[in-house]
UniProtKB/TrEMBL annotation:
Name of this protein: Uncharacterized protein
Lineage: Bacteria, Bacillati, Bacillota, Bacilli, Bacillales
Keywords: Membrane, Transmembrane, Transmembrane helix
Species, as recorded: Cytobacillus stercorigallinarum
Transmembrane feature ranges: 7-23, 29-46, 58-78
Length: 83
């Protein structure tokens, strides 16, 4: 149950990343990569704090990033279809 909770909290972190990325749409690519690394670090710290296991933290982060990317790509695909 903790793994599920960590994945949900990390999805909230990825939503925050999407918002920050939207705010910095005119920034350089290198700055966006740094912001992504900061959010990955936050997600890993949160997962490690709650799960107390490095392997389960990596698993939870991989699951949450995969779900996030699926919806992110899906929404761009729908946006292109609508326009």
């Amino acid at each position: 149950m903790r793994l599920y909770m960590v994945v949900m909290l990390q999805l909230i972190i990825w939503s925050g990343y999407t918002f920050v990325e939207w705010l910095s749409k005119y920034d350089q690519f290198s700055i966006k990569v740094i912001i992504l690394l900061i959010f990955v670090y936050f997600a890993m710290v949160l997962g490690n704090r709650l799960l107390h296991s490095n392997m389960r933290t990596v698993l939870a982060t991989f699951i949450s990033i995969s779900v996030y990317l699926f919806f992110y790509i899906f929404m761009f695909y729908i946006d292109d279809l609508i326009r």
